[in-house]
Write a structure and sequence with these properties.
The chain is α+β, with helices and mostly antiparallel strands and 220 residues long. The protein has 6 helices and 13 strands. It is rod-shaped and about 110 Å long. The N terminus is likely disordered.
């Protein structure tokens, strides 16, 4: 096996021992961009440092006290179970696990407040209803203006936390975000209870009544 690499036109990837004793993992061959000379790329198994050497020099023999020996002696071919492959697979698994863990943490943070919001949103809805039911004159009272300001802050806070109110008025019925309590058709008639989405996920569907659009009624 000592002289196997001497006759190789293509360097075999694997473990080589330098005549001075160090072992290296040959990664492959490359071509020098300046003089087009063939190079061998290899890594020191002790320091992980990368090296390159002209292929001709890599394969040549050198004079020692014991006579001529190969500069690099081929030891073993790289296999699927080599420490290098095991290390790379373990590193890839670790990186995948880290990415998944980070993604899970981000998802947890995004939706951890869902239960709290479920309890909080009815208060927001009641405040909106209390203002909506006021007369024009009552809308101008200090109390109503104060409630409107609180509602504005409430809406901005919810929006900053990724909460969106599901639009219903003037919209077609959406089975994914709405729940029809009564009626027939695909057009929203009334909104009975607002619905909300948290980071793209429905945490409470909008409760509505539906009706047929005018075109459908004429065709009947």
């Amino acid at each position: 096996m000592k002289n196997l690499h001497k006759t190789m036109e293509k360097i075999i990837k694997g473990i080589y021992r330098h005549y001075k004793g160090n072992e290296y993992l040959v990664i492959g061959e490359a071509t020098n961009s300046e003089d087009k000379e063939a190079q061998v790329l290899y890594r020191d198994l002790n320091t992980e440092k990368l090296w390159s050497r002209p292929k001709k020099m890599f394969l040549e023999e050198v004079e020692t006290k014991e006579g001529k020996v190969s500069r690099f002696e081929f030891i073993s071919e790289e296999s699927e179970d080599s420490w290098e492959n095991k290390y790379l697979r373990a590193l890839a698994d670790y990186q995948n696990l880290s990415r998944q863990t980070m993604k899970d943490k981000q998802e947890f943070v995004k939706f951890a407040t869902a239960d709290f919001l479920t309890d909080l949103l009815p208060i927001y809805d009641h405040l909106k209803l209390s203002v909506k039911g006021l007369s024009e004159k009552e809308q101008e009272s200090a109390w109503a203006i104060g409630v409107k300001y609180v509602l504005k802050q409430f809406k901005e806070l919810l929006s900053a936390r990724g909460v969106e109110e599901i639009e219903t008025i003037g919209k077609s019925f959406n089975h994914d975000t709405m729940e029809a309590l009564e009626g027939e058709g695909e057009m929203i008639d009334k909104e009975i209870m607002p619905g909300y989405i948290l980071h793209g996920k429905v945490i409470r569907p909008a409760k509505v009544t539906v009706k047929k659009n005018q075109g459908d009624e004429k065709n009947e």
